[in-house]
Structures are given as C-alpha cells and as structure tokens.
Amino acid sequence: MAPIVRSSKSQPDWKWWSVVDLTFTLDAVRQRSQLTLPIRQAVIAGWTGRDPVARDKHIAELEELGIARPASTPIYYRVAAARLTTAPSIEVSGVESSGEVEFVLIGTQGRILVGVGSDHTDRKVEAYGVTVSKQMCDKPIAPELWDFAEVADHWDQIVLRSFATIGDERVPYQEGRLDGMLPARELIARGFGGGGLPDGCAMFGGTFAAMGGIRPATRFEFEIEDPVLNRTIRHGYDVIELPILG
To answer: Pfam families from the xrefs (predicted)?
Structure first.
C-alpha cells in the first residue's frame, strides 16, 4: 500500500509540514498489531560511529568519492517526510546512487519504536552537496517495528546487515553490531537539544562501511537482527534507474 502524503498546519507558529502516513506491523514480545503512524519530519544522522577509527574509515571511504568531511560528528540532516516509503521499489535518476542500511527510530505518543531502513543517496550529488543529496532519493523503510523498551537493555548486541544485487549477483554489502554506533538515547539527545525524540519524527541512525566500497546495485536488501529475542526485520527494494537526457 502506498503511503498517504498530506499537509498539516502546526500551532503556534503556523508552519506547514508535509505529513506521510505509514502503516506498520508492530512486533511486540506478546503480540503483533497494525498501526498507522503520521510522520512529520525525517532526520538522517550521519557519522554516528562510537569508534573514531571505524567512523574515520567511513569518512575516508566517502572522501575517495570526492565527498567532503562533515562539519561535525555526528551530524543531522533534514529531509522531507514524503521521502519515506515502504514500497518494494524506488526510482532514481541515473546510475550514481546506492543504499546503506541504518536503524530507524520513530517517536510516537511518547514512545520510541525501532525499525530498519536504507538511506539511499545520490553519490554524484553528494560530492558537491551532502544535504541536497539526502533529499534526492526516497528512503525505504521496512514495514515492521519493535518497541525500543524491549531492546534497550541489549541494544549493543543488535546486528545490521545488507545485501546488494550487482551484476545479477547478490553479495554481502554491510554488517555490524550496534555497539559500533553511538547509543540510541545519546544520539537522540545530541540531535534534539538534550530532549527526547519528538512524536512524528523518524530518525535514521547511521551506517557501516561497505564491504568492497560503495557502489550501485539493481536491488538492495537490509535487515536488523535481535539475537536475544531471536527475531529479525527484513526488507528489500528494486532500484529503477531513470535516464538522464541532459
């Protein structure tokens, strides 16, 4: 089902926000349920590595593509909420984009829910404007979530991984445990002035270096694994390349 995008006027400052309604399955320990969440803002947190050596490796990886070092670490980019999608495919301009697996935190009614997504990014645009590049591509999210309260005490043991289909071959692309990332609550506090994750906000939490380097794929698959509660959220999407004619 395609997400519903609408407008919302917030008080008291009367700013207009793009709101996307996304439907998820909440996989709780005791039950599964459906819920539709209104997402009003999307944030892409970058360079969130806990280990400065691993973080700098990813920065160096991007520098090889001509992408400048970030102004700060971590850094928080805003993108339109309408870029979020649970669809099985996305359309991109040309052949210069690629995905990367990230955990996703969503604030709703004072709670934090956990999912997994792909910060699909146009790498050619990223070379001259990271903020602009983040806005260029849709951001796929798996249509399933966990309650953060159920995983908070073993957060560092959770695993992210991804697979890319390159030249008709499905290959491992990324893998790492969340003990390599800044803790979730610290990441939230740094990004929101010491406060909590706002309701209606979806925040991507950073990624790991790609095995063999960043490269485009015709299909990208990603997952988040909880080895303690023995469950995994998986999602994948096809990448449809649109021609650039001038």
So the answer is: DUF2848
